Amino acid sequence: MALGAAILGAPTHAAANKVGVAAAVNPDAFSGGKEIRIGKSIFYNERISTDANGVVQVLLVDGSTFTVGKNSNVVIDKFVYDPNKKTGEIVTSFSKGSMRFIGGKISKNPGGVTVNTPDGSLAIRGGMAQGAITSRGTIFSFLFGNEMVFKSKSGKVYTVYQPGYTLDLSSGVPTIRPTTAEDIQTILASLSNGNTNTAGVTTDNQPPPQNFVILPQDFQQMIIDATGTRISDEILQQILALQETTIEQLEETSIDFTIGGYGSGIAHDDYGNYTTVGSKYSTDFDYNEDSDVITLTLHNVEGSPQPSGPNLGIFKFSPVSNNNWTLSSLRLIDHSGNPFYVTDPTGGAERRTQVMCPGCNFIEWGEFHADYKYSSYPNDPYAMQEDINNGWWVGGAVTAFKDLPTTGTATYSGTARGTILDYNLDGAQVEGRGDLDMSWSFAKRSGQLSISDFKAISSPLQNYTPPTLNVSGTMSTPGSVNRFSGDISGMAGQIPVSGGAFGSFVTDGRRPAAGVIGNWGAKT
């Protein structure tokens, strides 16, 4: 660590609140004409000013650290900390120069750390950020943690959810963009005693330059506890990751979402007819967090393709246990919007506990089934018997359309689940699984979806296995709703197939387009 400082500020008296110490300073640092020593106390409302040669690191008693660079000005306005509850508040004013903040216990709490700047206020939660206020403009880079939130003087809020992105205020209009090597170079040069060249840097341990301060063991341990041993590694990883960073515009006022998704399956009637339900339609899956009730709305719910059959089915499932629900009600509606008379409805839904893809634990999915009779009038002796034996649902926190990125691209990889109905299986329905990939342009609001190597997990016939399915197509978002759709086509073995897909982007609570869910279907 190359550290040096000059500290000027309010008088320190017996009633002042001690919030931290100068944990690392340059031997040439002075305060009020007196040389600063390691262990110099920092007090409430004390101004930390540095000149062209000065850098200081302040360790606060909650484990947070502020590293103040050359030609900088930082004031610790407020510090409140309850060590028993590990809660409190830090408020600082940063008016010029450069600064790095590494959060301690207070930063883990929402609203715990606020940095006031000439352009607005910055809130940092559970992480590490650094910034520079210079004549060329102001930037703040998010290096690690949960989120960095900036509130402008006009009241507009900009949130950076993903490390490796920078809030750039240089143009006067806040923008969020990927952090560049130049951003890091600019700040590191100010935070060190010499110009820092990031080219060819490795994370191997190197002996410090001769002008580095060797800290006493007690303070060295405090620094390790506060900042961890991977500060340099985190910064270098940001540089190395720039070439692979997915560009997303994460300018947000909030993340608004509902728990929802999609459902599809195959309906079978007592005449031996089969019809896909939901797979070529934008179906709805809703989960009520208060009552744990699942509502699944499926289009084209009839085994027979006759126009007189149901056009819409609304299935409600009530909880039996954490991962199981029972069918509590079922409404069927004809093509004119009139309800059918439904009798003997039974069924259930199940949540699968396996994740659909690595890191996708924010997406829920499972299967459902139902058996029922319906007719045009009560006590109809010719009521239609119908069943859905292998239906599927998938759900998540669907991001509001206004919160989706408007620039950049993304790629997604995961799993496609479904039911295979092959007449060579004598009407048996088997579970299938394959790979799902999608590339998306947020600026163009379109992308490519593919489902590959989709095949039966098992076959009820010893000498026959359904052919492997491969389909793809272009998806687009035509309206102002978080819902894309498109046609898909391809081959099931040597047989051409076609169909469609619908989907939405879901959030993991930090990233507005962290994942994709949807339904699909294809047939010969």
Automatic annotation (TrEMBL):
Alphabetized InterPro entries for the sequence: FecR (IPR006860), OMP/PagP_B-barrel (IPR011250)
Domain FecR protein: 47-129
Lineage: superkingdom: Bacteria
Any Pfam family the entry gives: FecR
SUPFAM superfamilies in the record: OMPA-like
Coiled-coil residue spans: none
Protein name as catalogued: FecR protein domain-containing protein
Taxonomic source organism: Methyloceanibacter stevinii
